[in-house]
Specification:
alpha+beta; binds zinc ion; 8% strand
Length: 207
């Protein structure tokens, strides 16, 4: 077992990383199973999601669009973890290793490649999702910090508990970004179908 020793500060950054996945997922109405800070052999913490129903893509236009939106939402919530972790580390004056969130980023690119074979299109789509994730992390920053603190004491939260906690916090207000709200992604999209059974992990790589 290669479990790294964690300082309280590193653990807080992990909590912020996982909290960002969770808050953005909840804002996007994307269900997950649970979030935990309990380290495993591979992860310092993780959010368990049901796997996206990829077999549905392309079956018909409506399902294709719903699947595309579900993929975008997953990519945005994936990218939010590393963005939030880096933001927290920066404000604490800590340099994170290059490996931070690489698994999340690779997963995000893989998911976008399900929608297109064209590398330039995938890249553009990735950058768009990244901008959305950055906006969502900024606008939800107080909620992310509050959830991270709760996670540090509760360690593990099921979807309902996390949603209840996040719902009890004030919603971001226009102007929280310090500029005109874009409204691009605060609006939620529908959740995925219910027959998703496999589990997808979002890990944290804190060095
Ligand atoms: Zn992650």
């Amino acid at each position: 077992m290669r479990r790294r020793r964690r300082t309280p500060e590193a653990e807080r950054h992990t909590a912020i990383h996982e909290a960002a996945h969770v808050v953005v997922s909840i804002r996007k109405k994307r269900r997950f199973i649970s979030v935990t800070l309990e380290p495993t052999e591979e992860d310092q913490g993780c959010v368990l999601y049901r796997k996206l129903p990829m077999h549905r893509v392309g079956q018909d236009v409506e399902r294709g669009l719903a699947a595309e939106r579900a993929i975008e939402d997953s990519v945005v919530s994936s990218l939010a973890g590393g963005i939030a972790e880096r933001r927290a580390a920066r404000s604490d004056g800590v340099r994170l290793g290059r490996g931070t969130a690489t698994a999340d980023e690779a997963k995000a690119k893989e998911m976008l490649s399900w929608l297109s074979d064209d590398d330039r299109q995938i890249d553009a789509h990735y950058r768009l999702c990244r901008v959305r994730a950055e906006e969502l992390v900024s606008v939800n920053w107080p909620a992310i910090l509050a959830l991270a603190d709760a996670l540090l004491s509760e360690r593990t939260m099921g979807y309902r508990r996390a949603r209840e906690f996040v719902s009890s916090l004030p919603l971001p207000r226009p102007g929280d970004l310090g500029e005109e709200p874009t409204g691009v992604c605060v609006a939620a999209s529908g959740g995925g179908p219910d027959d998703m059974t496999q589990v997808e992990r979002h890990d944290t790589g804190h060095l």
